[in-house]
Amino acid sequence: MESESSRIFVRGLPPTMNEAEFRKHFGSKYEVTDARLFPQRRIGYVGYKSPEDAQKAVKYFNRTFIRMSKIGVELARPIGEAPTRRQGQSSQHPLAMAKMPAHNANAEPIVANLKRKRATPEPEVKEKDPKLSEFLNAMQAPSKLRGTRGEEVNIAAQELDTKVVVPEADSDSEYESVPKKQKSATATSRPSHTVAASPSPEPALQPEPAAKEEEFEGFEDEATQPMDDVEEKVRASQRLYLRNLSYATREDDLRTAFAGFGNLEEVHVPIDPKTGSTKGFAYLHFATGDSALQALRDMDGKVFQGRLLHILPAAAKREDKLDDFALSKLPLKKQQAIKRKREAASATFNWNSLYMNADAVMSSVADRLGVSKSELLDPTSSDAAVKQAHAETHVIQETKSYFKENGVDMDAFKKRERGDTAILVKNFPYETKASELKELFEQHGKIKRFLMPPSGTIAIVEFEHAPEARAAFASLAYRKIHTSVLFLEKAPKELFQATAPLTDSTDRETTQAGLDAKASASELLQETGTEVSAGTTSTLFVRNLNFSTTTDRLTDIFRPLSGFLTARVKTKTDPKKPGQVLSMGFGFLEFASKQQAAAAITAMDGYSLDGHKLQLRASHKATDAAEERRKEDKAKKLAARGTKIIIKNLPFEATKKDVRALFAAYGQLRSVRVPKKFDKGARGFAFADFTTPKEAENAMDALRDTHLLGRRLVLDFAAEDPDDAEAEIEAMAKKAGSQLNKVALQKLTSGGRKKFRVGDDQDGLEEA
Questions:
Q1: Distances (CA, A) of 733 to 366, 720, 758
Q2: Which of 4-13, 166-175, 418-427 has the lowest mean pLDDT?
Q3: Is residue 758 very low, low, confident or very high in pLDDT (cuts 50, 70, 90)?
Q4: Phi, psi of 279 (to 5 degrees)
Q5: pLDDT at 93
Q6: pLDDT tens digits, one per residue of 181-190
Q7: DSSP code of residue 482
Q8: Whether the predicted pLDDT of 515 surpasses 60
Q9: DSSP code for 204
Q10: Which of 281, 428, 610, 743 has a CB 3.0–4.6 Å from the CB of 432, allowing a cystine?
């Protein structure tokens, strides 16, 4: 919870100010989550989303004027906190002394004079004749009648003293020093038109308002439940009901605020479908009842985002589930389907986020090549599995490019944390249309983004609100679609970049044409980029440019030339016009190779552009020491990784020929080895050694998510062969000692025979 209050207390408001004006005035600078105005007392409370906004509001609004009234603004104090005396408040004020215990001889006479001023002695006849006394009291005037009952009023006021709840941020001196109960006690001793105009008893004498604070209107039902029943209910359900929340509260805000009490299994903030904002309440489901109970005790009544949080025990979540007895009566296949659907929403483990249906992959490739799947996969061929792996790799690379162009952060797939609004849709047939899939998810809420690559093998659906995404996930997980079953997975958190456009997938044919063109251009850049990175000079220096010539203009002139990559006009800031730039009269052109750059010099040297004849020369870039160090460090890191790749999770049916055929497409292989067991069977892993580290890295990036014979390949750089024989012997001895220690520990901790691991998995997979 917030260490400082996010509510402010305002005093000195105009008496004719209404709540709309009050909210508008204090919401002009910062977002207001709550506004409470008490016009009779000329005070109010304003809640902000964060304590920082509240502090800024105090600094901005304090000692300012609203109309002709000067207001005072300060941070509100929590309910129940004792008020602090403001500087300059006199401690010798007689009314203040009436509330305090007597510390000297003068205090008691002052209090007596205040309460019993003008008190007249009672006639002695009252003691002798009680009936006469009762008759005289009944026939007195109303004002005198109130005076004779002053003692009863004082007694009621004293009883009320012990029940008064200190309002939040009670900082007004007049309000805290003279409670209404003392005004009523001294009303008969002072001639005042205010008292005369109020013949009825004042509401401050009633015990009900003193036990109720304005901020907690409607929150009285908690007090009617015994504390033991509340604790028992919270422990049983492990759920809490939160109300009086801001309409801008998000699930992440509640997770952050309540994460310190224990693991949260679910945070549910209902959304109003008409307005799109929250309804002002939420449900929290904790992993244990003790965590929920501790959160209830510590957070109830605290300030959260400018509002007083009210927490009640919630009933157990209603779920229409079959009990174990009814489930056991169903067929085994039906039981497994029901259990799998139940566990889908809470499952966090997935083999592969970019998993694609193998049949859909082959259908996509066959459709693109204009052949049938039977022609693509020759049943008589021995490398059909390798062909399918190559096709899947091509589709995966194409899908990644499409997602990157639409603002998807591919690095987010490496994170374990999952979001609540985006869903990965997988394993649907190739003939499934984007409109059909989108219509299926639109039944559960408003879709913010829908991305389906032209390959038609995977899709990303992002909803506006998390409850809608959860409802769609629970309803559509493992649902049959055409001849397949939908696989749904919660997308990683922060999947989309901040600058990602709100795009929607179009027809497959249109998108396919655009993607093919972009893919061919990227392949061209990839092919030419290898030569440029090899250290060849491909940059030209252009002189005598017109100062009005821009980079776009220069690019349009040189774009038709073969091998042209980029053009740039050198500029500087304009000292006379801040924010604008001036051309420096020269620029640079980048070509793919030296030959193409030389051809450009021959063709364009002396060309007239905007009235100036261009002068082209080869650019020899000065050696930058920092850049050279960066290149050396990058080369060292790349070389440290080595050229040898270990392929884990390899199917036992895969042969050395299959591994070579799969990896040979990404570089020249030095060697391929598939270790065998004593019975000549494969051990489930292999090694591929490339000639250069760059080729090994390219193979790693391309085949990272590829499947071979239904198994996802797990790739990693293998440990290099040690040059020193003594170092190898020392490593082997260390490994053997670790295994012996584990065996000894197992004997000490467990008496029975039990299978356990004596070494790391990777130790046995490293190249010896």
A1: 54, 18, 14
A2: 166-175
A3: low
A4: -90, 0
A5: 46
A6: 444 443 444 4
A7: T
A8: no
A9: G
A10: 428
Alpha helices in 495-644 (DSSP H): 508-533, 551-558, 594-604, 625-641
**C-alpha Rg value of the chain to the nearest Å:** 40
Q: Give the per-residue pLDDT at 38.
A: 92
Strands 644-648 and 686-690: antiparallel
Cα 514 to Cα 117, 194, 303, 507, 510, distances in angstroms: 96, 83, 54, 11, 7
Complete edge-to-edge strand list for the sheet that includes strand 7-11:
32-38, 43-48, 7-11, 72-75
Q: Please give the C-alpha separations between residue 196 and each of 142, 148, 178, 189, 202, in angstroms, as whole numbers.
A: 11, 17, 19, 12, 12
More confident residue, 231 or 177: 231
pLDDT over 60 at 216, yes or no: no
The CATH class for the domain spanning 538-620 reads alpha beta
Flag whether pLDDT at 26 surpasses 70.
yes
3-state secondary structure of 111: helix
Q: Which residue in 726, 640, 719, 735 sits closest to 687, CA to CA? A: 719
Q: Are strands 43-48 and 7-11 parallel, antiparallel or unpaired?
A: antiparallel
The distance from CA 291 to its chain's CA centroid, rounded to whole angstroms, is: 22
Please write the tens of the pLDDT for every residue from 394-429. Answer: 888 888 889 888 888 888 888 878 888 899 999 898
Q: Which CATH architecture group holds 7-75?
A: 2-Layer Sandwich (3.30)
Q: State residue 532's pLDDT score.
A: 41
| CATH number for the domain whose boundaries are 216-313 | 3.30.70.330
Question: Looking at this protein, which amino acid is placed at residue 330?
Answer: L
Fold of 629-717: Alpha-Beta Plaits (3.30.70)
Q: Please give the helix or strand (H or E) that residue 36 lies within, else none.
A: strand 32-38
CA distance 318 to 309: 25
Structure pTM? Answer: 0.53
Classify strands 418-426 and 447-451 as parallel, antiparallel or unpaired.
unpaired
Distances (CA, A) of 185 to 62, 92, 402, 410, 688: 36, 20, 80, 75, 97
Do 254 and 284 meet the contact criterion of CB atoms below 8 Å apart?
Answer: yes
User: Which percentage of the chain shows pLDDT scores above 70?
Assistant: 68
pLDDT (mean) for 74-100:
58
> What whole-number distance in Å separates Cα of residue 164 and Cα of residue 182?
13
Residues 6+ apart with CB under 8 A from 450: 434, 437, 438, 441, 459, 460, 461, 462, 504, 505
CA distances from 426 to 308, 340, 373 (A): 44, 16, 21
**Helix, strand or coil, per DSSP, at residue 610:** coil
Query: What's the start-to-end Cα distance of the chain, in Å?
Result: 56
The owner of tokens 């020269």 is: 586
Name 298's Cβ contacts closer than 8 Å, sequence gap at least 6. Answer: 1, 261
For the segment 131-146, the average pLDDT, to the nearest whole number, is 68
Among 156, 291, 197, 304, smallest CA distance to 237 is for 291
CA distance 250 to 571: 46
Q: What is the DSSP letter of 116?
A: S
DSSP H helices in 100-192: 107-115, 125-128, 130-138, 142-148, 150-161, 173-177, 180-185
What DSSP character marks residue 656?
A: H
Q: Between 373 and 344, where is the model more confident? A: 373
pLDDT at 321: 63
Q: Average of pLDDT values for 463-481?
A: 87
Q: How confident is the model at residue 273 (pLDDT cuts 50, 70, 90)?
A: confident
CATH architecture of the region 358-510 = 2-Layer Sandwich (3.30)
**Predicted pLDDT of residue 175:** 43
Separation in Å, CA 603 to CA 67, 558, 562, 598: 76, 10, 11, 9
